[in-house]
Each structure stands twice: as structure tokens, then as C-alpha cells.
């Protein structure tokens, strides 16, 4: 995982998002839109380093967490505040839209 993007799994997910603002990209390596979303998520992670957690969950390897949050399509990006879902995006999303969602929560 490049730069400031964390890789979360079923085992590490809860601890990874329980405090502060987090953006989590649910993806799979075989999914072309997910591969296109990856560099966008990395740019968001770089620009919010130290302010918000930006992470990825491979739905093939961590199906438990994907199921827990009802992820049916990928990419799905979920924004959390202190462990609670506050916003969800499905499909390929631009950097500005994702950054805007984080800025809204960070004030």
C-alpha cells in the first residue's frame, strides 16, 4: 500500500476507524473501477495525512467487514466519524468529492 493509505482487514478494521474521521475504500484487485479509484484514494490520503485516516479493505480477503457494512458494489467508499458511518459513495468518485466529504467532517 502506497503512501499514507492503511490496509485494514476483518481483524484490524474496528481499531482502524474507531476514533476520528476515516475514509475507507472497499475494493478488489480484479475490479477495473477499483483500480482506477486507487490512485485517487492515495492522493486524498496524502493530502489528509495527520488529519484523517484513509484506508482500503480488500473485499475478497475481508468479506466479514464488507458484509457487516452491506457493501454490495465496489468500489464503495464509506466515511466514518468515531466508528460510525456518516457518508457512503458507490462507484468511481473524483478526488474533490472525497476531499469535500472529509473537509465537511473536519470543519
Structure description:
- The chain is an alpha/beta fold and 107 residues long.
- It has a five-stranded mixed β-sheet.
- The radius of gyration is 12 Å and the shape is globular.
- The model has no long low-confidence stretch (mean pLDDT 95).
List keywords for this structure.
Glutaredoxin; globular; 28% strand; 5-stranded mixed beta sheet; 107 residues
Question: Short description, anyone?
Answer:
The chain has helices at 13-17, 32-47, 63-68, 95-106; strands at 5-8, 21-27, 53-58, 76-81, 84-90. With 107 residues, the chain is an alpha/beta fold. Strand 2, helix 2 and strand 3 (53-58) form a beta-alpha-beta unit.
Total number of beta strands = 5
N-C termini distance? 28 Å
What is the domain tally? Answer: 1
H/E element order: EHEHEHEEH
Strand content: 25-35%
Structure classification: alpha/beta
How do the helices and strands line up, and which of them pair or pack?
Layout: E1 5-8, H1 13-17, E2 21-27, H2 32-47, E3 53-58, H3 63-68, E4 76-81, E5 84-90, H4 95-106
Parallel strand pairs: 1-3, 2-3
Antiparallel strand pairs: 2-4, 4-5
Amino acid at each position: 500500500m502506497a503512501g499514507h493509505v492503511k490496509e485494514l482487514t476483518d481483524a484490524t478494521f474496528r481499531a482502524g476507524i474507531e476514533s476520528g474521521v476515516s475514509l475507507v475504500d472497499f475494493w478488489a484487485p480484479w475490479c477495473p473501477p477499483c483500480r482506477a479509484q486507487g490512485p485517487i484514494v492515495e492522493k486524498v490520503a496524502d493530502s489528509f495525512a495527520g488529519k484523517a485516516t484513509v484506508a482500503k479493505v480488500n473485499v475478497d480477503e475481508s468479506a466479514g467487514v464488507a458484509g457487516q457494512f452491506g457493501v454490495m458494489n465496489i468500489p464503495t467508499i464509506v466515511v466514518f466519524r468515531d466508528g460510525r458511518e456518516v457518508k457512503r459513495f458507490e462507484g468511481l468518485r473524483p478526488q474533490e468529492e472525497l476531499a469535500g466529504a472529509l473537509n465537511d467532517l473536519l470543519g
